[in-house]
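User: I'm writing a tutorial on reading structure tokens. Could you give me a worked example: one chain, its sequence, then its tokens, then a sentence or two explaining what the tokens reveal?
Assistant: Sure. Here is the example chain.
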Amino acid sequence: MSVASPFDDSANPWFSWSYVESNYESLLDALWEHVQLTAVSVVIAAAIAIPLGIVAARSRLAATTILSASGVMYTIPSLAVFALLTPYLGLSSETVVFGLVMYALLILVRATLTGLRQVPVEVIDAAGGMGYSRRQLLARVELPLALPSIMTGLRIATVSTVALVTVGSVVGHGGLGQLIVSGFRNNLYKPQIMTATVMCVLLALLCEAALALAARMLTPWTRRRA
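And here are its predicted structure tokens:
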């Protein structure tokens, strides 16, 4: 005598349009929280990482120190990060954002450093010969030429952050991850699990496409070179 599996239950399909219609408000709320957590985390990480990448490009010692520190933070498991932060920040969205910023830092610092190191020396020398100050050289030459690398890092950091937001469900702020986890806890409620999962994947693809388009618009010289 075979035992029925929850995966074979026709009353509990992997996708149900009626579930979407009945729960669109909760789906939109979860999606909005997911977008907010992603956007805030990436913006904060970029605001910290790009200046750090600039400092790292100026000194080998600074580069070693900054990359080592951000690398150590990146290796800490996300659940451990939330466990360490909860006594200080509580079960709040700030706990999730802090952890997400930590994980995005290494990606963005490396992307900024790589881009600045790839700027041709002859271009820097030519700008210096034209009387550019160090600040003008950075703003008008180095950062624009490093922008393709920075944008690539931003795309990777954003997509990985979209995925990591789901882990925030352990502290009650996981966006679509909340629905995925509650679906597993609610007797493997497959429509909820699949709908939230598909929405998360589509959000990551949309972010990737939007940032790729932004990169093309901000760096038209790369298209001409290709």
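What the tokens reveal: Confidence is low (pLDDT under 50) at residues 1-7. Residues 24-58 form the longest helix (35 residues).
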